[in-house]
Design a protein that fits this description.
The protein starts with a helix and ends with a helix. The protein is globular and about 50 Å long. The protein has helices at 2-16, 24-35, 38-51, 54-81, 92-97, 105-120, 123-142, 148-167. Helix 4 packs antiparallel against helix 6 (105-120), helix 6 runs antiparallel to helix 7 and helix 7 (123-142) packs antiparallel against helix 8 (148-167). By secondary structure, it is an all-alpha fold.
Length: 168
C-alpha cells in the first residue's frame, strides 16, 4: 500500500512538472517557489519590524519566531524521513543544501505565516497569505523540487506550527 501511494505521488509530480517549459508560466512558478525562501522572508519581516509601528513589530517578531521554530521541526522530520527530492535540474541551490524533500519547508513556512497572520489580525494579510501559501507549494511541485505529499505534509506542519506560535 505504501509503495502504491509513493508511486502515485511520483506520477502526479512528474505529470505536473513544467521544468522543461519556458516562458511566463515557468517564471511565475519560479517567483512563487522563491517567495517562500527564508532568505527573502526574514529580511522582509526585519524591515516590517524596523519601520513598522508597534502593532506590526509584534507580528513581525511572532512570525520570525515561527519561521525559526518551523525550520527546526522541518529539519528534524527531514533527517528522520530522508526522502530524496524528485529527479531534476531546477533548484540546484535547494538540491545541494538540502537533498531531502519531506516535508516541504517552503510549504510549512508559508502556511505557518498564514495561520499566524490570521490569528493575530488584521484579517486581510492573513487571507492574502492563505491564498499565497498553496501557490508556493504548487510551484515547488511544478518545478520538480518536491512531491505533492511533501507539500501536503509541509502544510500540515505549518498549520500546527502556526497554532503553536499563536499559543506562545
Amino acid at each position: 500500500m505504501r509503495q502504491r501511494l509513493l508511486d502515485l505521488d511520483n506520477r502526479f509530480a512528474w505529470l505536473t512538472q513544467i521544468t522543461n517549459h519556458s516562458g511566463a508560466l515557468r517564471s511565475l512558478a519560479a517567483a512563487f517557489a522563491h517567495s517562500g525562501d527564508s532568505w527573502l522572508l526574514l529580511p522582509l519581516l526585519g524591515v516590517l519590524w524596523y519601520f513598522g509601528p508597534d502593532y506590526w513589530k509584534q507580528r513581525a517578531v511572532a512570525m520570525v519566531v515561527g519561521v525559526a521554530l518551523t525550520a527546526a521541526v522541518v529539519f528534524v522530520i527531514k533527517l528522520s524521513v530522508r526522502r530524496s527530492r524528485p529527479q531534476g535540474e531546477w533548484g540546484k541551490i535547494y538540491r545541494s543544501t538540502d537533498p531531502h524533500s519531506f516535508p516541504s519547508g517552503h510549504a510549512a513556512r508559508a502556511m505557518m505565516l498564514a495561520v499566524v497572520a490570521l490569528g493575530l489580525g488584521p484579517t486581510w494579510p492573513g487571507l492574502a497569505l492563505l491564498l499565497w501559501a498553496p501557490l508556493v507549494g504548487m510551484a515547488r511541485v511544478a518545478l520538480g523540487v518536491h512531491y505533492p505529499s511533501d507539500v501536503a505534509a509541509g502544510m500540515v506542519v505549518g498549520i500546527i506550527m502556526g497554532f503553536v506560535v499563536l499559543l506562545l
